Amino acid sequence: MISVQTLSEADRRLVADWAAACAERVLWIFEAEKPDDDRPRAAIARARAYARGALDTATEIRARFGGGSAARGVSPAAAAAARSAGQASAVCHMGAHALGAAAYAVKAISLAAPDQPHLVDVEIDWQLGQVTADMRMALRTLPAIGTDRSGPLGPGLLASGQMKRIIGRLQARLA
Fold first, then answer.
1. Residues 6+ away with beta carbon under 8 Å from 130
2. pLDDT, position 150
């Protein structure tokens, strides 16, 4: 049985572009610390290639696990930016990762500028401003954070703490 969090391939390709845009917007946070580490940038490029149909799911899944985690050995803000890119590249296999990419981007901003909490709202507003009507329809089919155990929106890192709150806000605004 396929999880409701998977989305159709057409919808995954659609939301992969949005996820890549969210991750790319905070990539500078990671690159400021690790300018020679191109893994997050490459993950974003693969998400965009998948979105335009230039990469298939199996190829992207194999590529995702080839380079290890760029989120190790950096500040929490840079790690969140790297995880945003990783989530964007994971959309090829499960559409719910698009919300993970967006939420990690928001988390990266909040950690990079803790003295400017209004930037969280600015980032969420920007992200939602990039969502087309078709993307919104696809993202609205995903279950509410923490209610479905069959994917990344179930119990785990995305469904706890700050990530759960951010995804909850995104889903509420998408409704």
1. 18, 21, 22
2. 87
* Cα distance between residue 166 and residue 159, in whole Å: 10
Instruction: Encode 66-82 in three state secondary structure.
Output: CCCCCCCCCCHHHHHHH
- Give residue for tokens 């995804």: 167
What digits encode the pLDDT tens for the residues 71-116?
788 999 999 999 999 999 999 989 999 999 999 999 999 999 999 9
- b/e code 25-51 from CB counts within 10 Å (16+ = b): bbbebbbeebeebebbbbbbbbbbbbb
Task: Please list the ranges in the chain whose pLDDT falls under 50.
Answer: 65-67
The answer to whether the beta carbons of residues 153 and 145 sit under 8 Å apart is yes
Tokens of 90: 């994971």
Query: Average model confidence (pLDDT) for the chain?
Result: 92
Taking the model in full, what pTM does it have?
0.94
Q: Compute φ and ψ for 43, nearest 5 degrees.
A: -65, -40
